[in-house]
Design brief:
The chain is mainly α. The protein is built from ten helices and two strands.
Length: about 325
């Protein structure tokens, strides 16, 4: 889980922007949710999960810029170690959301800490990292990797079992919350395991590592939706502006890159420098006229979705 087929220098603007948006949302949501109620087990468990995901996404983002050891090996092992923490963090978050508790948290912490240290400081999980001449990163796995994978799959599997088989004593709103979180975990885990484990480990195919890591965005979207519509974390403030801004930035960067490429080939100028300058100017002008209408449309769409969802239920506090 600590590999990438993309070198940072060759990473597209869209992929790089998605990494940065994902990192910003993970770190910001962890601080915001925790600050709303620092003594809440639910808020605290989410903050732990978000920061673990932040370490995973961030370490791979930095890993992409490395081309030589020992930095390449160091960031690869940091990426492996961060995933060790994500699995029990998911387990803890779902258990707290399901209003369950048990006495094994200390043992879980010791086991997770031991696996983290092995992944970070030994050759047992990540034996070696190498960068090929065309920018692809290749991992040589250690003999402990199957047990490392078992640690991850076990915790996530139990979390999904709890999410999709909650106790009948849960209130209806809590039942909906945990089911939505379960879907978010399931989709992200399936994509992440396929792209970051099955293809690299079994088929030596490292081309889709970034897809697995960026699938975290789907989990974040589910958390945002559940928080806004179903009052997860008891957050009553609508985070419409944050969600709209995130989508708007992603769309703007995608459009800007495509417009530059299209206009550079379309404009009848012989000098490549003049073509680039002219294409950039035209793209900026188009973006200036379309930015505000797109923002208003996204805000109206968000309002309609939220109002439609809230109509059947009246909330009084």
């Amino acid at each position: 889980m600590g590999d990438s087929s993309l070198n940072f220098a060759g990473m597209s603007l869209v992929v790089a922007s998605l990494y940065l948006l994902c990192l910003a949302f993970l770190f910001g949501s962890a601080l915001y949710v925790f600050s709303r109620d620092p003594f809440s087990r639910l808020n605290g468990s989410y903050a732990l999960l978000a920061l673990s995901l932040f370490a995973w996404v961030g370490s791979l983002f930095v890993y992409n810029s490395q081309s030589e050891n020992p930095a390449l090996l160091y960031w690869g092992r940091v990426n492996f170690a961060s995933v060790v923490l994500i699995a029990p963090a998911v387990y803890l978050f779902v258990y707290v959301l399901a209003k369950r508790s048990h006495r094994w948290w200390g043992w879980i912490g010791l086991e997770s800490g031991a696996v983290t240290l092995l992944a970070l400081f030994t050759r047992l999980v990540d034996k070696a990292e190498s960068a090929l001449s065309y920018g692809e990163h290749i991992t040589t796995y250690g003999w402990l990797f199957p047990l490392y994978l078992l640690h991850i799959v076990t915790f996530i599997g139990i979390a999904l079992w709890v999410a999709f088989r909650p106790t009948s004593k849960l209130p209806e709103e809590s039942f909906i919350q945990i089911r939505l979180v379960g879907y978010g975990v399931l989709v992200t885990a399936v994509i992440g395991i396929m792209a970051n484990v099955v293809l690299p480990y079994l088929y030596r195919d490292f081309r889709f590592i970034d897809v697995g890591t960026l699938s975290t965005i789907f989990f974040l979207a589910v958390i945002a939706y559940t928080s806004v519509v179903h009052h997860l974390f008891n957050i009553r403030v609508i985070l419409r502006a944050t969600l709209v801004l995130t989508v708007l930035i992603a769309l703007t960067l995608e459009f800007y890159q495509l417009a530059i490429e299209f206009l550079t080939h379309l404009l009848p100028l012989g000098d490549p420098t003049q073509q680039q300058v002219a294409a950039t100017t035209v793209a900026l002008i188009i973006n200036a006229f379309t930015h505000e209408p797109v923002r208003m449309w996204l805000e109206q769409l968000m309002d309609r979705l939220l109002q439609r969802k809230r109509k059947p239920t009246e909330w009084t506090h």
